[in-house]
Amino acid sequence: MTNDKQHMEQPQYQHIIYDNKRYEGTTEHYEHLLKEIEWYDIFLDQEQPTSENYDTAIRNFILNEVEPHEYNRDVGDIGAFLRGDDLSLSDYFNPHFHNGLLIKHVEWESTWRWNMDTSTITYIPYNHALEDYDPPEGMEFGKLYKLWETDGHLYAYDKTSTGITRTLEVRQLTPQGNDDILSQSSSLFRNKEQCIHYLRTLWDDPVMCPPLNYIERAYPSIYHTPEERQPSLKETARDTYYAASALDNAEKTNPSHIYKEKQK
Question: What per-residue confidence (pLDDT) applies to 116?
Answer without folding.
Answer: 46
